Amino acid sequence: MIPENIILNFGATLKQYSKERPIFNEGEQADFYYQLKTGHVKMFNLTEEGKEFVQGFFESGNSFGEPPLFGDFKYPATALTLVDSDIYLLPKAAFFDLLKLHPDIHLNFTKMICKRMIYKAKIAREVSIYPPEHRILTLLHHLKSNAKVTHHFEVPLTRQQISELTGLRVETVIRAIKKLEKTNALAIIDRKVVL
């Protein structure tokens, strides 16, 4: 999100995280801006029963965990690497200095956070009201619109990841996807879900 030369000029360090290592935990103080150079991260909460509810997946080039920096509150979720990852860390004060000197980057953050808020509102509504098929389609259509794809969109998520993002069991996701395929709401091509 922030060009490499700019983030380095403001004092970012590049840190290597091994697979399945926490970057920060729910309830910790937010002191850094995080941006993935390479790797894959998930943010999640654990339910009382120990089930993960995934807030989001982030890949190379993505940033994550910014709202607590802006809102001055603690992390509402845990961030964990899914593969070995290289992540830029920029101290909070330097991050705000960077935004003040680069209003275009600041505007991009505002837009990105608004998109994430809309996604969270959609998912909250889906989880509380709608059946599994509707929840899954809402998630997939949201991903497609963010990818700005007009025709065939190959969903970049596994059935497990769809389960984690919708709060459904994997078995329920598999059954719902089969139902959706029968109604032509989506297709399965080479074991991939396509909208």
From TrEMBL:
InterPro entries registered for this protein in UniProt: cNMP-bd_dom (IPR000595), cNMP-bd_dom_sf (IPR018490), Env_Response_Regulators (IPR050397), HTH_CRP (IPR012318), RmlC-like_jellyroll (IPR014710), WH_DNA-bd_sf (IPR036390)
SMART domains linked to this entry: cNMP, HTH_CRP
Pfam families linked: cNMP_binding, HTH_Crp_2
PROSITE patterns given in the database record: CNMP_BINDING_3 (PS50042), HTH_CRP_2 (PS51063)
Domain Cyclic nucleotide-binding: 15-99
GO cellular-component term (any): cytosol
Stored Gene3D superfamilies: Jelly Rolls
Residue intervals of the HTH crp-type domain: 130-195
GO MF assignments: DNA binding; DNA-binding transcription factor activity
UniProt entry tagged with the keyword tRNA processing: no
Keywords, sorted A to Z: DNA-binding, Transcription, Transcription regulation
Organism superkingdom: Bacteria
Protein name in UniProt: CRP-like cAMP-binding protein
Taxonomic classification: Bacteria, Pseudomonadati, Bacteroidota, Flavobacteriia, Flavobacteriales
